[in-house]
Specification:
Blueprint: H1 2-17, H2 28-32, E1 36-43, E2 47-54, E3 59-66, E4 70-79, E5 85-93, E6 96-100, H3 112-126, H4 137-141, H5 147-158
Antiparallel strand pairs: 1-2, 2-3, 3-4, 4-5, 5-6
Length: 165
């Protein structure tokens, strides 16, 4: 315990001797002392909303309500080091945080083979063909499934809620 306390004091002393952090980013000086020029909030028992704006162009707003947890939507914008204004709109709910912005990267297109496989899966399911992911020898060899496989399959179906780690 004494070693931990001594190590903490040495760490704090070393940190005190370090020079202050100065960023070389162009926006850093504007951000360091930016004043808040607008601020508004309204908090109620089952909902809230807030927004603010700073003199260096940062703006943010959000509103939310209690609905089986909190559901919120909002937006923020700021000026990047390249001088471009970046804007983000978002929704946050049981589906998670879902941001959208023109500057976000987009995923590559889905390969044609994957699209065809998804279409085939949808057709199979519509026809009542369900592939549960288990190996079925009869499916690949033309032979009927073994009784052991059928028993294991029935047992797995009966305990579908059980997960192994």
């Amino acid at each position: 315990m004494q070693v931990l306390i001594i190590a903490s004091f040495v760490g704090f002393a070393a940190a005190a001797l370090l020079p202050g952090y100065d960023s070389n980013r162009p926006q850093a000086n504007l951000e360091k002392n930016a004043r808040i020029i607008a601020l508004d909030s309204d908090v109620k028992e089952d909902s809230y909303r807030w927004n603010y704006e700073t003199e260096n162009g940062i703006k943010a707003e959000e509103q939310g309500r209690e609905a089986d947890g909190i559901e919120a939507q909002g937006a923020f914008q700021y000026t990047g080091d390249d001088g471009q204004v970046y804007s983000v709109n978002y929704v946050a709910n049981q589906g998670g945080f879902q941001p959208q912005g023109a500057h976000f990267p987009t995923p590559p297109p889905t390969p044609e083979a994957i699209l065809k496989a998804l279409e085939q899966n949808a057709r199979d399911e519509a026809a009542g063909i369900i592939d549960d992911g288990q190996y079925n020898a009869a499916k690949y060899s033309g032979a009927p499934a073994s009784p052991a496989y059928q028993q294991n399959y029935a047992r797995a179906q009966a305990s579908a809620g059980f997960k192994r780690f």
